[in-house]
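4.2 Preliminary Data

To establish feasibility before requesting continued support, the project team ran the inverse folding procedure on a target of 159 residues. The structure was first converted into the token representation described in Section 3, and no sequence information of any kind was made available to the design step. The complete token record follows.
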């Protein structure tokens, strides 16, 4: 008899996004993303970090500074954008699992790449205008989005 307590596809792919977030060197917010095609195959993953070629040790990671150039914000690539750029596959019709609801810039990239569904873990910036803009664009362009619904399973990684 087969076991029945296995994890769902949503749990599996959100788990991959959560694990990917652990690669981020950001000291305040770690975000991970996993893109999956209609055959439940992972086509890309990403996490928030500095662009390729920018040494993490030479770049600012602060949230505030004397100018915006003293902060991480003008430099860090979001997990969603990294996942899109890391893919060698056609993303039309794919689902993105992401640990934080996309900002307006990432929403644009999701829409342009053809992703049709977003499953997110948290939306802690829901009241920010950039998030509200993302919601407007996703809705107008027919990209479905839904909050991840945990089943109660505990996933543990031991090394």
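Position-by-position output of the design step:
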């Amino acid at each position: 008899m087969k076991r029945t307590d296995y994890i769902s596809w949503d749990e599996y792919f959100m788990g991959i996004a959560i694990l990917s977030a652990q690669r981020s060197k950001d000291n305040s917010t770690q975000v991970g993303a996993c893109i999956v095609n209609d055959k439940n195959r992972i086509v890309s993953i990403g996490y928030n970090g500095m662009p390729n070629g920018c040494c993490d040790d030479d770049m600012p990671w602060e949230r505030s500074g004397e100018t915006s150039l003293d902060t991480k914000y003008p430099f860090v690539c979001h997990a969603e954008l990294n996942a899109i750029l890391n893919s060698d596959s056609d993303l039309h019709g794919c689902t993105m699992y992401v640990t934080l609801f996309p900002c307006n810039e990432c929403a644009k990239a999701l829409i342009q790449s053809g992703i049709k569904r977003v499953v997110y873990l948290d939306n802690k910036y829901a009241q920010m205008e950039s998030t509200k803009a993302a919601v407007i664009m996703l809705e107008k362009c027919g990209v479905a989005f839904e909050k991840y619904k945990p089943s109660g399973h505990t996933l543990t990684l031991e090394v």
